[in-house]
Amino acid sequence: DLAAASLADLPAFAVDCGGDLRIGGTAGRPRRVLVAGPGSGAPLHELEVADGAVATSGVTRSAWPGPDGRPRHHLIDPATGEPAHTGVLQATALAPTALEAEVRAKAAVLAGPERAPGHVVHGGVLVFREGGPLVLAA
After folding, report:
1. How far is CA 5 from each of CA 34, 53, 54, 68, 91, rounded to the nearest angstrom?
2. Are 136 and 124 in contact (CB under 8 A)?
3. What is the average per-residue pLDDT within 74-94?
4. What is the pLDDT of residue 94?
């Protein structure tokens, strides 16, 4: 968001924040953003963003086997101190800022399938352990 603020007077810009994006510029030119699926990484959905941010968080990419053989990852359930297994594999959130998009994506994963859509209020894509992806309109 700080880099985006310094680029705001340009006709168009895109800042890659470790895979998350902050897009904008005075021309208001829409950019295509492909959302990769959690398994193969093949494109799952296409978003169009002219001004705002896209962030994805999930439990499949930064994962490793634990000492008990169960998968571990970096999203921790605050109630147990253990990796969260909520039934949401991945959440991609749109938001006005990169900070908000990142927080909303992580909150959606941690919230579980029933409450996840309530965190993705600006649009995005949710991928559940069971069932297909859910595209939420902006």
Report:
1. 24, 13, 16, 46, 26
2. yes
3. 91
4. 98
